[in-house]
Amino acid sequence: MSVKKYIVMGVILTLLTILLIGCSNKDQLNSTANIKEEAIPYTHPEAMISADQLKKILGQPNLTILDTRTRDVYEQSHIPGAICYDFRSVLDPNRRGRFNSPKAFSLRIREYGVNSSDHIVLYSDNYNHAALWFFLNMYGLNVQILNGGFGQWQAKGYEIETGRVRRGNLGSFSLSDEQQKANFIIETIDVANALQQPENVVIIDARSDEEYGGRGHIPGAINIPWDQLINEDMTFKNASDLKKVFLDKEVTPEKQVIIYSNNVFRASFIYFALNKLLGYTNVKLYDGFYLYWYRHRPLATGST
Predict the structure, then answer these.
(1) Structural domain boundaries enclosing 129
(2) Number of structural domains, the chain?
């Protein structure tokens, strides 16, 4: 083989080596970027508690655990010491879908022996506990959601109880309008006005695809069903995946976000993810959809 051919082959091998090293470095950079993306933390991780964390504090005198599942399911198995709580008491019995007054709610929850100074942990097997969290959080109480609900407690193999837990004394619980830390609820007229600013406002319908498309929705609202935010084991998706769910629908932090569902439970679940897990600050919950909008204002149909 001639010297010229050796030189040409050498140049080709050198170029191939450079290309391979470049691709390898690129793969490493992409891998590092993915790791960093997955490592995005929740903005307020203290708003949740894991099964492991709850196990460590079980039995503390100021701890109150509220199980918002149905009575029959609760009595079959629940976390030791958990109280079966009727989640519907957070709603006004005379105005479907709307939150109760702080006075009426206080009178009801104190019957369960709950104190407003307690460390309150909520769980269920779906989204029902989210509205109770929203209400208590609005008044600044020390309340957390058990990530993954009762299923996570069971998956860990932790002790369970059957039957019903009762507290023999009334709780010391009294809320008033003056104690409200901030108003995170929006009224119908303000929702109507928001529709005139589509570039600055996004409205989220937290119901199912079937309800959104078939039964009708607020014109311009986008559909993000509550279960798009969770993994198969009912735990919340990591912050990176949650962020993608919302950004894919152009729900960005600088916009005013309004969330609704029929009876605020699913809407509260979306609110929790946006406000506490992703740190969106300009978020409101519309609790008048079923009572005021659905019955008296125009609806749109079809999917987004």
Answers:
(1) 45-179
(2) 2
Cα separation, 229 vs 231, in Å, equals 7
Angstrom distances, CA of residue 254 to CA of 61, 157, 191, 261, 280: 42, 43, 17, 22, 8
Structure tokens at 160: 């369970």
- Domain edge (last residue) among 127, 155, 179: 179
Q: Using one digit for the tens of pLDDT, what is the confidence trace for 182-240?
A: 789 999 999 999 999 999 999 999 999 999 999 999 999 999 999 999 999 999 999 99
* Calpha distance 211→214 (Å, rounded): 5
Number of residues assigned to the chain: 304
pLDDT at res. 20? 43
Identity of residue 132: L
Nearest to 266 by CA among 220, 300, 228, 231: 228
pLDDT in tens, 267-304: 999 999 999 999 999 999 999 999 999 999 999 998 76
Question: Can you tell me which residue has the tokens 């607020």?
Answer: 218
Domain end (from 151, 179, 207): 179
CATH of the domain at 238: 3.40.250.10
Measured between alpha carbons, how far apart are the two ends of the chain, in Å? 68
Does the pTM surpass 0.70? The reply is yes
On whether both 251 and 141 belong to a single domain, the answer is no
Q: Taking a C-beta distance cutoff of 8 angstroms, is the pair 131, 90 a contact? A: yes
Same-domain check for residues 165 and 194: no
Residue with tokens 């993306």: 37
CA angle 267, 273, 246 (to 5 degrees): 90
Same domain, 63 and 169: yes
